[in-house]
Amino acid sequence: MKTLIVYASKYGCTADCAKYLAGKIPGGAVLADINKPAKPIELSGFDTIIIGGSVYIGKMAKKLREFCSNNLDPLLKNKVGIFLCCALADQMDEALKNSLPSALLEAAKITMSFGSEARLDRMGFVDKAMIKAVTKGDFSGFKISHEAMDEFVKALMS
């Protein structure tokens, strides 16, 4: 079984999660950063595809949304798992609905939020100001759940 992880990462949290997943998947996985493709991302040859992204202003990254829409037919022919790095887990379903085709969401074997991290040292002024305003400066709830990532891999590979 060959696995591809296609992801978009703005400040590195989603990339770290994708790398963690790749290390937990039996046989490993090929990583494809949608923002830094060395070549066009080819879906043939894979039977499991994981899509991962972060949520900003209620949606996943535009390039990732476009990739999913433009590749909907081949994606639907594979086993698909979708993860989000999302600070507000209760908003995950709405963010997915706003970002991805409904057929893909219905076909996904699993969708899950892994939590989030506030990497303020990597953020620009506007993003930093927005996140501070939304959280009122309380970042205590910002944690990535390795347990959730392990659960995701177990469910997807079963």
Account of the 3D structure:
This protein is α/β, with parallel strands linked by helices and 158 residues long. It has a single domain (3-157), classed as Rossmann fold (3-Layer(aba) Sandwich). 40% of the residues lie in helices and 17% in strands. It has 7 helices and 5 strands; from the N terminus they run βαββααβααβαα. The chain has helices spanning 13-24, 62-70, 72-76, 92-99, 102-107, 125-135, 146-157; strands spanning 3-7, 30-33, 48-54, 79-85, 110-113. It has a 5-stranded parallel sheet with strand order 2-1-3-4-5.
| Sheet with the most strands: spatial strand order | 2-1-3-4-5
Give the name of the CATH architecture. Answer: 3-Layer(aba) Sandwich
Mean pLDDT: 87
Helical fraction equals 25-40%
Q: So, the CATH homologous superfamily?
A: Flavodoxin domain
Keywords:
single chain; 158 residues; alpha/beta; Rossmann fold; five-stranded parallel β-sheet
SSE layout and pairing:
Layout: E1 3-7, H1 13-24, E2 30-33, E3 48-54, H2 62-70, H3 72-76, E4 79-85, H4 92-99, H5 102-107, E5 110-113, H6 125-135, H7 146-157
In short:
With 158 residues, this protein is an alpha/beta fold.
